[in-house]
Specification:
alpha+beta, globular, binds adenosine monophosphate, binds zinc ion
Length: about 110
C-alpha cells in the first residue's frame, strides 16, 4: 500500500492526530502554511473529489462537521478559518487520498 495517508490511518507512520473516530481522522499538516493547518481525511481510501460516488455524500459531510468541531475546540470559529479541498494536479493536489485542509491565521 503506497498511500501515505492510509499509512497514517494504520499508524504505520506517525502523525500528530487531533481527532479520530470510526470514519474520520484529523492530524497536523507536516508542512503547515498557516499557524493552524489540520488535514482531515476519511479512513476509507478515496483518491479525489473526482472519484466520489453518490453514496459518499454523508462521509464528505462528516469531514466538514469534523472541521467545525476542531475549529470550535481550537476556539477559532469566531475569528474564522478556511476549508480547502484541492482536486487533481491542476488543482494542486499532491496526496491522492481525499482531504480537507483546515487553515487559520497568517495569510491563510
Ligand atoms: P494537497 O496538496 O492538497 O494534496 O495536500 C497534501 C498535504 O499533505 C500537504 O499540505 C502536505 O504538507 C501534507 N502531508 C504530506 N505528508 C504528510 C504527513 N506524513 N503528515 C502530515 N501531513 C502530510
Ligand atoms: Zn489512502
Amino acid at each position: 500500500m503506497s498511500c501515505i495517508f492510509c499509512k497514517i490511518i494504520k499508524k504505520g507512520i506517525p502523525a500528530e492526530v487531533v481527532f479520530e473516530n470510526e470514519d474520520v481522522i484529523a492530524f497536523k499538516d507536516i508542512k503547515p502554511i498557516a499557524p493552524v493547518h489540520i488535514v482531515i481525511i476519511p479512513k476509507r481510501h478515496i483518491a479525489s473529489v473526482v472519484n466520489l460516488k453518490e453514496e459518499d455524500e454523508i462521509l464528505m459531510g462528516k469531514l466538514i462537521m469534523t472541521a467545525k468541531k476542531i475549529a470550535d475546540d481550537l476556539k477559532i470559529s469566531e475569528k474564522g478559518y478556511k476549508l480547502l479541498i484541492r482536486v487533481g494536479r491542476g488543482g494542486g493536489q499532491e496526496v491522492d487520498h481525499i482531504h480537507l485542509h483546515l487553515l487559520s491565521g497568517g495569510n491563510a
